Amino acid sequence: MHWMLSLAISVAYVVVCLGWGFLIVQAFGRCRIKISTDESSSDDSSILVASGFLAGAAVISALLTVLGLIGQLRTLPLILVLLPGTVGLVLGRKSLRDWMYASLDPLRAFRVMPLWLFLIAGFTALLALGSGIGAWVLPPKGDAAAFYMVYPKIIAATGVLEPMHGPFYFFSAIGLPVELHYAALMVLADEHAAKFFMFPIAVSVGVMLAGIVRLCGGGIAAVALSWAMLFSSYTFHHYVYDGKVDLAAAAFGLAAVYWLLRGTESRVSVLAFGVAGWFAGLATTAKFSYLLVLGVSLFVLLAWRLVVSRSEETRLGESSVNLARVSGLMAIAALVAWIPQLLKNGMLFDAPLAPFLGGQGEGNLLSQVWFSPEDTRKILLTYPFALVFGRYPMQGGGLSFLFLAFLPFLAWMARPASWRRSMTVAVTVAAFAGVAAWMVLRPSVIAPRYILATLLLFVPILAIAAEDVLTRMPVSRVLQTGTAATVMLAIAASFWHLLPIAGAILSGTYARNNKCLLASVECSSFQQLEEVARPGDRILISSYYPYWLAPSHLQCRDSLQEQREIPDQAQLLPWLQSHGFAYLVIDAQVSGKLADDMAQLAVSHAAEVQELLDAQPLKMYRIKSETPGHVRCLRSTPGRWYLQRDP
Fold first, then answer.
1. Residue 26 reports pLDDT greater than 90
2. Under a CB-based contact definition with an 8 Å cutoff, are residues 76 and 159 in contact?
3. How would residue 28 be classed by pLDDT, with cut points 50, 70 and 90?
4. Nearest 5°: phi and psi at 480?
5. What is the pTM for the complete model shown?
6. 228, exposed or middle or buried, with CB in 10 Å at 0-12, 13-18, 19+?
7. What span, in angstroms and rounded, lies between the C-alpha atoms of 201 and 46?
8. Dihedral in degrees, nearest 10, Cα atoms 191, 196, 197, 198
9. What average pLDDT does range 275-290 have in this prediction?
């Protein structure tokens, strides 16, 4: 599909998600798309649009879950699911128009910004735009090429939501907040349209974070600095164009925090707390680690706002009762958000609470210990530096060094009139509580993406402190210039992984539409295999990143049980032949012993084991057999393949 048509379909899909969000608000009887907790509260159009998009995306994901479970995730049913979103756009046209007018305000603000702030805002906008282009152009890499875009690729081909074939069978029990959108966009367009869907989610993270900063008293400078801190964090911008789905949890989590704060802004708002609880439920289904971290942060924030910062006229007992009631309301709303996840796992694994209870899932999915006690002690002793400069295996990048660079501004930050009633203090205490809970209960897991929403709650106090010093206090231009230079350095470092796009365009190779252009090194090996393998051929894949294989081969691949049963060299060849494997793909760094065994078989049984040459960096072998194996891969419906085993 043409690149621009792919982008247009993805943008239209995003707009329909927004329309669904407008439709949801109309269902609550609001003639105008406005969720306000008090008559004096200003209507922040960007927040409402971001919240509407996230809500619509969540509802469409739930409907796609149902379509997938009944085997109807096809073009026509998809269009029928999306059509109500166009109705929502009509109903919400006034709010959408208000947002479009309000979106001009930041552009007007550019003209009156001092030069140092203009440079920060401008370069941050370029980085955000570059991340969006990367999401559209770059192929999936890392975990996305192992699971997060492989699973949607299979679902799009079959139209059925079922456990993923291969070693990630039980991992399919996780929440699928974005993967089903990927599958839908692959049905309607292609993988580029699917990957671009992560960009509006990333923008929503920035919008919700900016909304929290504004609620804490931050101005335009604090908002610009918060976006710079966000997009220059590797653990954020990398997942905008990587294809992994972690940012959805961060978007839902920050939306929960924002609406919780709005619910306590002046008086208790049942609607705002219900919205906050629902978004919290979406965040925890998107990333199970948020159950611990975001749960602690939200409860501490709620308790601070309702109990600690209560007025003198309000009794402690009354505030405690309000805390219990609101907590219960949010818990019920969160449970509603979990219904599609419970339905999916109930039908696929006969265990609605999988992987927590039942489902025969892998134990390390929930009880993760990554490092030895010595390394864990080192990690804990180096917080927060480990979150910024750490380069541990599986860490997935760190926060921007601006989180540390802005710390000195706290010493000159204006003190709040009341510590107890300061929203900035409440948000910061909630952030500390969430991170502390993670350090105590998951000390060995150093991965900012697991707790990103809570980590981002440190942004308001840092951005506002920097704004205080740089704009509200008499400071020298040297400090402003130094701050701008530091921020631009952080942003420039974030462009590193986007530079190949510019190089490919300038060299003209981008126009050739090479499938492996800008892809990981495994792509060319798998493409070579696709040239010789027939649909339905079984392939044993001992590699982490099989995204580049055809859907039929991804469905006919080795099962989790077969991977566990791979015998030693003496029995390896007859075992492969009896299980109907036609090809082997081996990454020597993943399975060194299997690579050695196959290399020896290629010499001792040359007539039956043939190595495919020039398949670097992977080792690939063709297996010949005079008799068919007792396991065969057959096609049941167009696009869907299944394994048949002889008794």
1. no
2. no
3. low
4. -65, -45
5. 0.93
6. buried
7. 13
8. 110
9. 96
